[in-house]
What does this fold into?
Amino acid sequence: MAVSRRKFLTTTGGLALAAGLPAMPALAQDRSIRHFWWGNPERDKRTFEVIEIFDKNHPGISVSGETIGWGDYWTKMATQTAGRNMADLVQMDYRFLFEYVRRGALQELDPFIGNGLDLSNFDKGPLQGGMVDGKLYALNIGSNSQVFVYNEAIFEEAGVADTDVINWTWDQFADVCKTITEATGGKVKGSDDCSVVLEVCEVWIRQNGSSFFGPDGDVTVTPDIIADYWQFWRDLRAEGALRSADKSLDANLPMSDVGIVSGDTAISNFWSNQIVGVQALMQDPVGAAMVPHKEGGDPGQFIKPSMFMSLTRDSEDPEAAIMYMNDWINNPEATKVLGLERGIPANPDVRAALAPDFTPAERVSVDYFNAIQDKVGTLPPPEPKGAGEVRDAFIRAATNVVLGDIEPQQAAEVFVDDAQAIIDRAR
Amino acid sequence: MKNTKARNASGYMFLTPWLLGFFLLAIGPILVSLYLSFTRYDMVGDPRWTGFDNYIYMFTRDRRFWKTLEVTFHYVLFAVPLRLIMALSVAMLLDKGLRTIGLYRAIFYLPSLLGASIAIAILWRQLFSIDGVVNQVLAVVGIQGVGWITNPSTSIYTLIILAIWQFGAPMLIFLAGLRGIPRDLYEAADIDGTSRFRKFYAITLPMLAPVVFFNLVLQIIEAFKIFSPAFIISNGTGGPADSLLVYTVYLFNEAFKFFRMGYASALAWVLLLIIGLFTALAFATSKYWVHYENERD
It folds into this structure.
């Protein structure tokens, strides 16, 4: 039998303990768990507050929180996974969930349901999102959807405030962009250029009756659809209604550099849980619009789990970890602190308890969430291994299109080939 | 005899900490990476032996591998000579008997002390961003700047400028070399009324050739290994459009972003071969242009 480092340490540690400290039973009750998440200052503040509440309510268990930005999070996760040193509880993303489950890094949660983890009052839809092959591996701690956030003051100024932004089409969107650019004399452009944003392109693809990946993980989208998408933005750019090309090449901009926040544009794309964060950085009030629809097309947007919490293979005290997890979704003290920052909570009681104290921006998010309920499609199938790399390839291809180095059709054909090659290699 | 052995033994005893570090932290991982380069390893499961697949894929199918070579060679080709020219020019300026010269040398060395740091890379990103200082200065003289970093055709040059600015280490070595050139050679040249250019060309350069060679080899090795500035300036992606995808950034992303530790190990070994090849090339050509004063013919 191979002896792992962990086993070696716990065994020898246990022996040392037994030999040296026979009369200290209290020590054995000191339990500690680690929680690791990607965050921003606001999220970190709220999470540490929840940790304090938990520590207070559960003497004998101490939680240590570790936080880092999104960009470095997955690097650190990979390193810790390889070193068999993962935190007990980690924040998970829909895009990475399947990769981690298939690598055997996460523990199934089903044995804990009703046995420490109370899901009796949890929406079924959000619960499904955390399942892989019919088993629950990730607990939804918030839902979101795509959103175009717009500056209400500028919409007012340009006289387009009465646009039906929940039901608008791409043509109407283009008109609004042009009107705003004209009304402000080009000082504020209509919109950010979403050419490099795969998340918006995916909505476009679904509106055209296709999907990026098929159920078996192959790339099913045709180059024509993607070329049309890039052509749409290119035409709008030619009209001068978009942010400058130089500023439109980074799909991972910090929130403060996105067009609507920096004041360059009136419309920017986000995930709906970010509305609160955007508003916090802006003076003008913001509104929430759906990604424009294709006339007569399918619904493109979907409601997706924004974040999950998962129990890792390396957890030594799953029982304590599950207690903490349960508090996150059921303890009113904790859920009040967390609010909507990570997305819309899946527990109706929690939502009801939060409602009276909503800030205007939180009100905008919840109203938006309610308004889109019957206008969204089904959650796309789980992304195959290599999907993250495909996203990088998309950004590279789109960059060349935005800079005018290549025709959309040609770029799309090369990209679709590349994407399939990436998926094949990851198998 | 026995005495010597005992003395040797105690010597090795004192070396133990270093030897342990060398074998466990250097040789060990290096050998493991050689093994991993023949496997497929996602850092969670066990490595799976795949023979030469990684290397075959690299040379036959991986388009980004050729792209990263192109970017890296582009960088090395510009950064190394320009940095050496800069270092030599400044060294010659500082090779004077002024009383405050120590201060100047310290000041000129400063960028190199800061150079490897993350802070400078972040500063660089700000300087050359579309609303950055560089464009603001250009705007004053009426030039409309571009997004130097976001534009794939200019981004590599921001990296090269950074490399040139960090000329401190080769400059110090040049300075030491310049001090070592006998003054009487210059005095003799002065008596003959030689021009300054001629003195540089006929005395300084040949006398300095061993030092130039030394610096050249060091800088080639260092330039191929460039990582942190490219990583920071491109936000870890090597973008836009792979224009900052220098070799080690590609390697890092393959390992820690896409979990292909086996493939990344293979990339690392190929980089070692490339660096070895260029160092050997430098040595091979050196006999035509480097002459040592104490050489016996």
About this structure: Chain B has one domain: 53-289. Chain B touches chain A through 24 residues (CB under 8 Å).
